[in-house]
Amino acid sequence: MGEQLGLRERKKRETRQRIADIAMGLFMARGFDQVTVAEVARTADVSVNTVFNYFRTKEDLFLDRMELVEDMPSRVVRERRPGESVVAAARRAFLERLDARDWSSGMNEGADVFTRMVEQSASLTARVRELGERQEEALARTLADETDADPDDMTPWLVAAQLSAVTRRLTAHAMRRRMAGEDAERVIADLRAHAEAAFDLLEKGIGAYGAR
Length: 212
Description:
- This protein is 74% helix and 0% strand.
- The chain is an all-alpha fold and 212 residues long.
- Helix 5 packs parallel to helix 8.
């Protein structure tokens, strides 16, 4: 029975991934708003109902790693090393993903195409913004759990907001340069320097910044 359940789950994951891959191919070829769910289903040789069994909306087809992205900062906090602060863990994880050219860093091949498609679709832009908000809320709840914070303590929410803002702005800055055609290696090198400075600000505070 266990083997049968394992095989069934593996087939479901494979079907889900195949549908998502086919959908992304269509989106990249023609644009997100120009492709319908019915076309995705027809190309994948499944029914429209099957597509919606795996993906709640058309936007979820495009953002098929949404759940993984939403949990990523929280996972970094949960898996931080003994004695490692939350900011130190976030810095290390960001730089490791950047060095690895991981898709989550936005520095992988095709990330500029992905970003351009998001910017060209109002519904995708809204969904990505919603994903960022959910990611920040999940991080705040994780921080509250990890530090056993009082329900009225705003600290986890403020820390989550600052960490989220730093990573969001760093990634957006790099993606603008990539979309403008700048060399990827140069952008990555600059992004590493910007990231070090940004996380230094988080660790040391901004109290002296801009003083006259």
